[in-house]
UniProtKB/TrEMBL annotation:
<keyword id="KW-0175">Coiled coil</keyword>
<feature type="transmembrane region" description="Helical">
    <location>
        <begin position="135"/>
        <end position="159"/>
    </location>
</feature>
<feature type="transmembrane region" description="Helical">
    <location>
        <begin position="218"/>
        <end position="236"/>
    </location>
</feature>
<keyword id="KW-0472">Membrane</keyword>
<feature type="transmembrane region" description="Helical">
    <location>
        <begin position="36"/>
        <end position="57"/>
    </location>
</feature>
<feature type="transmembrane region" description="Helical">
    <location>
        <begin position="7"/>
        <end position="24"/>
    </location>
</feature>
<keyword id="KW-1133">Transmembrane helix</keyword>
<feature type="coiled-coil region">
    <location>
        <begin position="337"/>
        <end position="371"/>
    </location>
</feature>
<feature type="transmembrane region" description="Helical">
    <location>
        <begin position="179"/>
        <end position="197"/>
    </location>
</feature>
<keyword id="KW-0812">Transmembrane</keyword>
<feature type="transmembrane region" description="Helical">
    <location>
        <begin position="242"/>
        <end position="265"/>
    </location>
</feature>
<feature type="transmembrane region" description="Helical">
    <location>
        <begin position="103"/>
        <end position="123"/>
    </location>
</feature>
<protein>
    <recommendedName>
        <fullName>Histidine kinase N-terminal 7TM region domain-containing protein</fullName>
    </recommendedName>
</protein>
Length: 546
């Protein structure tokens, strides 16, 4: 029998047992009023059912805080039904105490829904999740109402007394406090239903009964309470005792939430473990196997200790084991890295081949173009190629020489670095609609390093005082490359300053620089300084003002 069918059978068995003991109670009260076993037997069955529910909470529900709150709810139920047992077994001839202990139903009606709401907040949440502390403020009115209920004889806020009735008696005439508890319980339960419905949702394909399951609880509680409220809670015959009926309606609804998947539970599916491709297994704290996949590797004490320390362990180059602590043991699974490692080795081989063929830059653009084609963005790389076409042409001219000098190789690296860094900045802009300032700093650092390799003393002062627009960042890179190409890479020194303004101070060039406009509304303003030029990158209107 499957786990789901077993669960349904247990629900029906519990319901049958509840109706059976309720029938026995009614018949015994009617025909065997002196039956002293009745309260003991009824209470024992109630406890059996509630402890069975506690076992379900402990073994099925995975979220720790949810288990705690549902356990608190169950404890309140157990305590109240124990009070009912004391009433039936020992207080049935003591009307004053019977009436006083009857007030405890309000305590149950206040706290049982509240703990249920707290439990619902943790649906689908991790163990470290905590609800907002403001929700615990509800404990203040809950405690206040409880005190008022237990002291009703002093103020009759919950139940009033009709003067012509003999006192004390078992007739509870509901007053404003009782209706407040009704409103409290229904409000809390209704919001609990909303939380469950919102956290899980329903698909359009779900059947109507599944969509309505979260609403069964308030509907059943309301329908079950109407006959009792209409008769001041004194009835001649009841199918199920009122207190027990309310509690078991709540338990039944939680069971339905579990059965229909509205609450994530630990179903301990053996078939899932057996067929798992990630070699799952659960170990006890001592290392004994509780459940394991067919392909799970044996966990030695040494491996278990390593997993406890590091949370992962590489048994081979291609297999890594992972550990996560769970209630009562450890969950272990493995990841297969052979395909990833194969891909990495293939990339290394391709990189080596690209270096040997001196075609690394063209291959990098092609690789980026291939990656972009998977995302349907070939047009981005087409436009990018056109923006660096001049530098690619310059590279082709250098590489076409019969023999390359060391200076030629340094120029190739400098031009290649520009293409790479400019392309990265442009792609970042296309992807994110912005360029992080750190990316510009890294690009300029790479350019400065390559400029030093071609014999240009280079300094970089990167202290921007405000956010730089992405287009301006791209023009900074373009302007630097334009200056280098115009000077034919023959400079003594270059000082790059990124602050409130962007400037390039160059020395040792025979080339004459003049102010001129760039595309996009930017301009390069040239100022003659000793042994060189100071070039400011400004917007067009700033150039005119200067």
């Amino acid at each position: 029998m499957g786990e789901r069918k077993k669960f349904v059978v247990r629900i029906f068995v519990a319901a049958a047992l509840l109706f059976a003991v309720s029938g026995y109670r009614q018949l015994s009260m009617r025909y065997l009023p002196e039956d002293f076993l009745r309260p003991y037997l009824v209470w024992a069955v109630y406890m059996l059912l509630l402890f069975g529910w506690q076992y379900t909470i402990s073994t099925k529900i995975t979220q720790k805080s949810m288990r705690i709150h549902l356990t608190a709810q169950n404890i309140v139920s157990i305590l109240y039904l124990t009070v009912r047992f004391v009433q039936d077994a020992f207080l049935y001839v003591n009307i004053p105490w019977m009436r006083f202990t009857g007030y405890f139903i309000n305590i149950a009606a206040i706290f049982i829904p509240l703990f249920g709401l707290y439990g619902a907040f943790y649906l689908g949440k991790a163990d470290d999740y905590r609800i907002s502390k403001k929700w615990y403020l509800l404990l203040i009115p809950a405690c206040l109402l409880s005190v008022l209920a237990l002291t009703n004889d002093l103020h009759h806020f919950f139940y009033y007394i009709i003067p012509e009735e003999s006192q004390p008696n078992l007739y509870f005439h509901p007053h404003i406090g009782t209706y407040i508890v009704y409103i409290w319980g229904l409000s809390i339960i209704s919001y609990q239903v909303y939380v469950i419905y919102r956290r899980n949702g329903t698909a359009k394909s779900d059947s109507l009964y599944r969509k309505l399951i979260p609403f069964y609880e308030p509907i059943l509680l309301l329908l079950f309470s109407i006959p009792y409220a209409a008769t001041a809670y004194v009835v001649r015959f009841e199918l199920v005792e009122y207190s027990a009926g309310l509690i078991f309606i709540l338990v039944l609804c939680w069971q339905l939430y579990i059965l229909t998947g509205l609450i994530p539970v630990n179903t301990q599916y053996e078939e899932v473990f057996r067929r798992s491709t990630v070699a799952m297994q659960i170990l006890s704290p001592s290392g004994e196997t509780i459940a394991a996949s067919e392909n799970a590797a044996e966990i030695t004490p040494a491996i278990l200790e390593a997993l406890k320390r590091e949370q992962q362990f590489s048994s081979t180059e291609d297999i890594t084991m992972h550990l996560h602590p769970v209630l009562g043991g450890y969950m272990i699974w493995q990841t297969e890295l052979s395909q990833i490692n194969h891909a990495l080795r293939e990339l290394q081989r391709l990189n080596a081949k690209l270096k040997e063929e001196q075609d690394l830059l063209a291959q990098e653009i092609r690789i980026q173009s291939d990656e972009a084609s998977v995302q349907a963005r070939n047009d981005i790389y087409d436009s990018l190629s056109s923006e660096v076409a001049g530098q690619l042409t310059l590279l082709t001219e250098l590489l076409s020489k019969e023999s390359l000098s060391e200076n030629d190789w340094d120029r190739i690296c400098l031009i290649g670095t520009y293409i790479k860094r400019f392309s990265n900045l442009r792609l970042t802009y296309q992807e994110q609609q912005m360029i992080p300032m750190g990316d510009l700093a890294l690009s300029l650092q790479d350019m400065a390093k390559c400029m030093k390799n071609v014999g240009i003393r280079t300094s970089l002062d990167f202290c921007p005082t405000s956010y730089l627009e992405p287009e301006f960042i791209l023009f900074i890179m373009k302007a630097l490359e334009s200056i280098l190409e115009e000077a034919d890479f023959r400079l003594v020194s270059t000082a790059i300053q990124i602050g409130s303004t962007v400037s390039f101070e160059i020395t040792g060039t025979a080339c004459e620089f003049v102010s001129h406009s760039l595309e996009g509304g930017y301009g390069l303003q040239a100022e003659k300084i000793q042994a060189g030029y100071r070039l400011l990158l400004l917007q067009e209107r700033e150039v005119v003002q200067s």
